[in-house]
UniProtKB/TrEMBL annotation:
Native organism: Mya arenaria (Soft-shell clam)
Topology of this chain in the membrane: Single-pass type IV membrane protein
Location of the protein in the cell: Mitochondrion outer membrane
Entry's EC annotation: 1.4.3.-
Lineage: Eukaryota, Metazoa, Spiralia, Lophotrochozoa, Mollusca
Protein name: Amine oxidase
Oxidoreductase recorded as keyword: yes
UniProt family annotation: Belongs to the flavin monoamine oxidase family.
Amino acid sequence: MENQSREVEVVIIGAGISGLTAAYRLKKKDPHLDVLVLEAKERVGGRTLTVEMKSADGSDHWDLGGQWVGRCQPQIMALLEELGLEVYPQYIRGLKFLQVGRLSNIASYSSDIPTLPLMGLYDLHRLLSMTDKMALEVNPNDPFSCPKAARWDCETLETFIDSKIWTEAVKDLLRACMRTMFGVELSQISLLYFLTYVASAGNMKNLIEATENTAQEYKIKGGAQQISEKLVKHISKENVLLGEPVSMVTQAGDSVEVISKKGNKYRCKKVILAVPPSQIGRMEFNPTLPVETREIIKRMPPSNAFWRVAGSSGEVVSNGGASMLPSCDMGPLGVVYDATSSNAQPALLGFMGGLQAVQWQKMEYIEYRDLVWDTEPYNEGAPVSCVGPGAMRFYAKGLREPFDKIHFAGTESATIWCGFMNGAVQAGSRAALEVLYDLRPQLVAASDIQVIGGHRSGHKQGQGQSLSGKVVKWSLGLGIALAVIFTARKFYNSMSPA
Ligand SMILES: Cc1cc2nc3c(=O)[nH]c(=O)nc-3n(C[C@H](O)[C@H](O)[C@H](O)COP(=O)(O)OP(=O)(O)OC[C@H]3O[C@@H](n4cnc5c(N)ncnc54)[C@H](O)[C@@H]3O)c2cc1C
């Protein structure tokens, strides 16, 4: 087939939530603006993917990617409303199970506060409030402007938690939480990046809880991929080309030429890059991208949650934990081993034995799906790309500052809820305004100019009572007692002969 050549005003690369939000905002401001979205995959939605599966009553929809939202995330909530999508609360009532600490005891609890020894509760409260306090010193628009930036950027989240936390159970709890949130080991995350992430979300409570006004408050009825599908309807299907991976972007004179792997050429006045940093690194740019951008994308690999890459052997020994099914006394798996074949085909092998095997073999699953985001083309990892130690000095300029006619969107470039769907919307809207400011300045309001300047809005610090607030109520008495004991011990030590 002959290669095509097309001329438009704006090319947006990537049809995830961020790229499509940028297209939607541009078309909303000026329906005559010629905008074309180029997407590598044969589907829209990027890191959101909703699948239909058989269910007890026929079939239903489940999300394999981004799914939770909350009222503390103003941009995504407003977009959901504009698109007519409804949310429903995450179910959190009833017993919860916690398996942490060396003894691997399973504790159950039903409040918002994990069952931990009192010393652990105090430890957890200390870390949460210390983190919130430190995050207040970090401006997500320019994290490296913080006076302690260089020091915090040398440290990793692992060394921070290791040095500040006394109890093994709380270390385990935080590691489990952070691994899930970032998809990498804590030793791979710069402390300054982590604090930037907390600052962009407002506070730790917003990030980690599933209660009112937090990030895991609601799910989207019918699935999160609908956000992108609805946006496509608004900007019109002809303006979104699927299966069109971009390989090269050349800026020359007044225009930009975008070339796809298929050899198709698109000439335009402006480009919005709405792909994860690792995918920017796979494209060729002429002239090359600024050094800050090259440096930050090299140090922002996509996360991977899987066993060998995460430094794990794959080996698990468990008593099965608690069962979700009333007819089984415990969870299904006893021992898991790495079962990678001699041809290096990765696999895990799990054993069910004894009562576990007797009870679980009677069970039939209706359908099973999983998705390893590491191997998903044009993502290569999830949920977010993290910055390792020593690279944050390039962060703000490298990820967000326009390079002549190229503008940057994508959740990683957001200043409010970066890494989340909210961040994708905020960054897409900001990039759209930047483009509009140059192409249609008459359509940009004074309030929009503030947004382009990257000002921070949307969260109110300390909404509701935080987990740390609740923990402090429970542990205050003990905290005071401990403080006295520690001070006394310190005093005693300093008095003792060396
Ligand atoms: C398992 C998982 C759970 C998550 N949970 C949550 C959650 O509960 N709540 C939440 O808010 N967020 C969550 N997230 C994160 C959220 O999904 C993302 O922040 C958001 O979807 C990112 O949107 P984006 O548009 O910035 O990037 P993406 O969704 O990654 O979109 C980028 C698009 O660019 C395309 N692309 C890449 N390279 C090229 C190229 N060369 N040419 C053309 N196109 C290209 C990609 O195919 C992709 O479609 C989760 C993510 C995952 C994977």
